[in-house]
Amino acid sequence: MRKLVKVWKATRSRCAMAAIAVSMLGLSSMPAQSGTILSISPASINGAVGTGLPGNEFEVLLTNTGPSAVTIGSFGFSVTTDSSAINLTDALITTADPYIFAGSSLFAVGNSIATSTGTTLKASDATSLVGGVTLGAGMSDALGLMTFDVAPSIVPGTYDVTILPYPETSLADANGNNVTIDTITNGTITINAATTPEPTTLVMWVEALIAAAGFAVWRARSRNRARG
User: Fold this and answer.
1) What pTM was estimated for this model as a whole?
2) Structural domain includes residue 219
3) What is the dihedral of CA 192, 196, 199, 200, to 10 degrees?
4) Peptide bond preceding 199 in cis form (omega within 30 of 0)
5) How many of the other CB atoms lie within 10 Å of CB of 220?
6) Which of 63, 113, 171, 224 is the most buried (most CB within 10 A)?
7) The domain containing residue 66 runs over which residues?
Protein backbone atom coordinates (compact mmCIF):
# COMPACT_ATOMS: atom_id res chain seq x y z
CA MET A 1 0.00 0.00 0.00
CA ARG A 2 2.79 2.37 0.92
CA LYS A 3 4.49 1.63 -2.38
CA LEU A 4 1.29 2.51 -4.24
CA VAL A 5 1.06 5.82 -2.38
CA LYS A 6 4.68 6.64 -3.21
CA VAL A 7 4.13 5.79 -6.87
CA TRP A 8 0.97 7.93 -6.97
CA LYS A 9 2.77 10.93 -5.38
CA ALA A 10 5.68 10.63 -7.76
CA THR A 11 3.35 10.38 -10.74
CA ARG A 12 1.37 13.41 -9.56
CA SER A 13 4.57 15.42 -9.13
CA ARG A 14 5.76 14.53 -12.63
CA CYS A 15 2.39 15.45 -14.09
CA ALA A 16 2.41 18.78 -12.30
CA MET A 17 5.91 19.57 -13.56
CA ALA A 18 4.86 18.60 -17.08
CA ALA A 19 1.81 20.86 -16.87
CA ILE A 20 3.96 23.79 -15.70
CA ALA A 21 6.42 23.19 -18.52
CA VAL A 22 3.66 23.12 -21.12
CA SER A 23 2.16 26.29 -19.65
CA MET A 24 5.50 28.11 -19.73
CA LEU A 25 6.10 26.96 -23.30
CA GLY A 26 2.73 28.34 -24.28
CA LEU A 27 3.47 31.68 -22.63
CA SER A 28 6.86 31.96 -24.31
CA SER A 29 5.32 31.30 -27.70
CA MET A 30 2.68 34.04 -27.29
CA PRO A 31 3.34 37.09 -29.49
CA ALA A 32 4.45 40.27 -27.75
CA GLN A 33 1.78 42.92 -27.38
CA SER A 34 2.01 45.94 -29.66
CA GLY A 35 3.23 49.14 -28.00
CA THR A 36 3.28 52.81 -28.84
CA ILE A 37 6.09 55.09 -27.73
CA LEU A 38 5.92 58.88 -27.81
CA SER A 39 9.34 60.48 -27.51
CA ILE A 40 11.40 63.65 -27.81
CA SER A 41 13.86 63.26 -30.70
CA PRO A 42 16.72 63.72 -30.29
CA ALA A 43 16.58 63.00 -26.57
CA SER A 44 19.49 65.39 -25.89
CA ILE A 45 19.23 68.78 -27.59
CA ASN A 46 21.98 71.40 -27.69
CA GLY A 47 20.35 74.82 -27.71
CA ALA A 48 21.78 78.31 -28.07
CA VAL A 49 20.78 81.75 -26.87
CA GLY A 50 18.88 83.59 -29.58
CA THR A 51 15.69 83.71 -31.59
CA GLY A 52 14.90 81.83 -34.79
CA LEU A 53 18.10 79.78 -34.69
CA PRO A 54 17.96 76.70 -36.96
CA GLY A 55 19.47 74.37 -34.36
CA ASN A 56 16.88 75.19 -31.69
CA GLU A 57 14.44 72.43 -32.59
CA PHE A 58 13.34 68.87 -31.85
CA GLU A 59 10.65 66.44 -32.94
CA VAL A 60 7.84 64.64 -31.15
CA LEU A 61 8.10 61.12 -32.53
CA LEU A 62 5.54 58.29 -32.49
CA THR A 63 6.97 54.75 -32.69
CA ASN A 64 5.04 51.50 -32.98
CA THR A 65 7.09 48.65 -31.50
CA GLY A 66 4.77 46.03 -33.04
CA PRO A 67 4.09 43.32 -33.85
CA SER A 68 0.70 44.60 -35.05
CA ALA A 69 -0.04 47.86 -36.86
CA VAL A 70 -1.91 50.77 -35.27
CA THR A 71 -4.25 53.21 -36.99
CA ILE A 72 -4.16 56.90 -36.09
CA GLY A 73 -6.89 59.33 -37.04
CA SER A 74 -5.95 62.30 -34.86
CA PHE A 75 -3.65 63.39 -32.06
CA GLY A 76 -3.02 66.17 -29.61
CA PHE A 77 -0.01 66.79 -27.40
CA SER A 78 1.42 69.23 -24.88
CA VAL A 79 5.16 69.76 -24.41
CA THR A 80 6.65 71.84 -21.61
CA THR A 81 10.07 73.00 -20.38
CA ASP A 82 11.19 73.76 -16.85
CA SER A 83 12.80 77.11 -17.72
CA SER A 84 10.92 80.36 -18.26
CA ALA A 85 13.82 81.46 -20.50
CA ILE A 86 13.03 78.72 -23.05
CA ASN A 87 10.09 79.70 -25.22
CA LEU A 88 8.51 77.02 -27.41
CA THR A 89 7.55 78.99 -30.50
CA ASP A 90 5.89 76.60 -32.97
CA ALA A 91 4.97 73.06 -33.98
CA LEU A 92 5.55 72.45 -37.68
CA ILE A 93 4.69 69.64 -40.08
CA THR A 94 8.00 70.14 -41.94
CA THR A 95 9.69 67.30 -40.06
CA ALA A 96 12.87 65.34 -40.80
CA ASP A 97 11.09 62.06 -40.09
CA PRO A 98 7.95 61.44 -42.15
CA TYR A 99 5.05 63.51 -40.85
CA ILE A 100 2.22 61.17 -39.91
CA PHE A 101 -0.46 63.13 -41.79
CA ALA A 102 1.66 64.33 -44.70
CA GLY A 103 -0.66 65.33 -47.53
CA SER A 104 -3.81 64.81 -45.44
CA SER A 105 -3.54 67.32 -42.58
CA LEU A 106 -6.83 68.93 -41.58
CA PHE A 107 -5.66 71.43 -38.95
CA ALA A 108 -2.35 72.76 -40.29
CA VAL A 109 -2.32 76.51 -40.94
CA GLY A 110 0.49 76.85 -43.43
CA ASN A 111 2.99 74.49 -41.83
CA SER A 112 1.91 75.08 -38.23
CA ILE A 113 -0.27 72.87 -36.03
CA ALA A 114 0.42 74.75 -32.79
CA THR A 115 -2.63 75.93 -30.85
CA SER A 116 -0.70 77.71 -28.08
CA THR A 117 2.98 78.53 -27.45
CA GLY A 118 5.24 79.58 -24.59
CA THR A 119 6.96 77.50 -21.91
CA THR A 120 4.20 75.00 -22.69
CA LEU A 121 3.25 74.31 -26.31
CA LYS A 122 0.06 72.58 -27.44
CA ALA A 123 -0.53 71.14 -30.90
CA SER A 124 -3.07 68.92 -32.63
CA ASP A 125 -3.95 67.55 -36.04
CA ALA A 126 -6.20 65.05 -37.78
CA THR A 127 -6.16 63.30 -41.13
CA SER A 128 -8.66 63.72 -43.94
CA LEU A 129 -8.30 60.02 -44.79
CA VAL A 130 -11.48 58.19 -43.79
CA GLY A 131 -9.70 55.08 -42.52
CA GLY A 132 -6.93 56.97 -40.75
CA VAL A 133 -3.20 56.46 -41.21
CA THR A 134 -1.67 53.05 -40.49
CA LEU A 135 1.63 52.92 -38.65
CA GLY A 136 3.22 49.54 -39.22
CA ALA A 137 5.15 47.49 -36.70
CA GLY A 138 8.63 48.86 -36.15
CA MET A 139 7.81 52.15 -37.88
CA SER A 140 8.08 55.75 -36.63
CA ASP A 141 6.35 58.93 -37.76
CA ALA A 142 6.75 62.48 -36.52
CA LEU A 143 3.88 64.38 -34.91
CA GLY A 144 5.61 67.72 -35.32
CA LEU A 145 8.83 69.73 -35.31
CA MET A 146 9.09 71.96 -32.24
CA THR A 147 11.06 75.22 -32.48
CA PHE A 148 12.22 77.26 -29.51
CA ASP A 149 13.97 80.51 -28.55
CA VAL A 150 16.34 80.99 -25.63
CA ALA A 151 16.50 84.29 -23.73
CA PRO A 152 19.88 85.82 -22.79
CA SER A 153 18.83 85.69 -19.13
CA ILE A 154 19.05 81.89 -19.03
CA VAL A 155 21.50 80.26 -16.65
CA PRO A 156 23.68 77.77 -18.57
CA GLY A 157 22.70 74.21 -17.78
CA THR A 158 20.45 71.31 -18.76
CA TYR A 159 16.67 71.66 -18.73
CA ASP A 160 13.92 69.06 -19.02
CA VAL A 161 11.59 68.86 -22.00
CA THR A 162 8.48 66.92 -21.00
CA ILE A 163 5.57 65.47 -22.96
CA LEU A 164 2.61 65.83 -20.63
CA PRO A 165 0.63 62.61 -20.09
CA TYR A 166 -3.02 61.87 -20.88
CA PRO A 167 -5.34 63.74 -21.21
CA GLU A 168 -2.96 66.57 -22.26
CA THR A 169 -1.47 64.18 -24.80
CA SER A 170 -3.53 61.56 -26.62
CA LEU A 171 -3.96 59.52 -29.79
CA ALA A 172 -7.21 58.43 -31.42
CA ASP A 173 -8.11 56.06 -34.23
CA ALA A 174 -10.25 56.93 -37.24
CA ASN A 175 -13.42 56.48 -35.17
CA GLY A 176 -12.24 58.72 -32.35
CA ASN A 177 -11.45 55.85 -29.99
CA ASN A 178 -8.47 56.32 -27.69
CA VAL A 179 -5.22 54.65 -28.74
CA THR A 180 -3.13 53.85 -25.69
CA ILE A 181 0.30 55.45 -25.40
CA ASP A 182 2.34 52.79 -23.62
CA THR A 183 5.52 54.80 -23.04
CA ILE A 184 6.50 58.47 -23.01
CA THR A 185 10.21 59.25 -23.32
CA ASN A 186 11.16 62.83 -22.49
CA GLY A 187 14.30 64.80 -23.35
CA THR A 188 16.61 67.61 -22.29
CA ILE A 189 17.85 70.93 -23.68
CA THR A 190 21.41 71.91 -22.77
CA ILE A 191 22.45 75.55 -22.95
CA ASN A 192 26.19 76.18 -22.71
CA ALA A 193 27.78 79.37 -21.41
CA ALA A 194 28.19 82.01 -24.10
CA THR A 195 31.79 82.49 -25.22
CA THR A 196 33.34 85.86 -26.10
CA PRO A 197 34.52 85.72 -29.71
CA GLU A 198 38.26 86.02 -30.18
CA PRO A 199 39.38 89.12 -32.13
CA THR A 200 40.22 88.38 -35.74
CA THR A 201 43.78 88.55 -37.04
CA LEU A 202 42.99 91.74 -38.97
CA VAL A 203 41.68 93.48 -35.86
CA MET A 204 44.77 92.44 -33.95
CA TRP A 205 47.02 93.86 -36.72
CA VAL A 206 45.10 97.14 -36.72
CA GLU A 207 45.44 97.41 -32.96
CA ALA A 208 49.17 96.71 -33.22
CA LEU A 209 49.61 99.39 -35.91
CA ILE A 210 47.70 101.95 -33.84
CA ALA A 211 49.87 101.14 -30.83
CA ALA A 212 53.06 101.43 -32.93
CA ALA A 213 51.93 104.76 -34.40
CA GLY A 214 51.14 106.08 -30.93
CA PHE A 215 54.57 105.04 -29.70
CA ALA A 216 56.26 106.75 -32.69
CA VAL A 217 54.40 110.02 -32.02
CA TRP A 218 55.32 109.88 -28.34
CA ARG A 219 59.00 109.24 -29.18
CA ALA A 220 59.14 112.11 -31.67
CA ARG A 221 57.67 114.52 -29.13
CA SER A 222 60.12 113.33 -26.51
CA ARG A 223 63.05 114.04 -28.84
CA ASN A 224 61.75 117.50 -29.71
CA ARG A 225 61.44 118.36 -26.01
CA ALA A 226 64.97 117.14 -25.36
CA ARG A 227 66.38 119.37 -28.13
CA GLY A 228 64.43 122.37 -26.97
Assistant:
1) 0.72
2) no
3) 20
4) no
5) 10
6) 113
7) 36-191
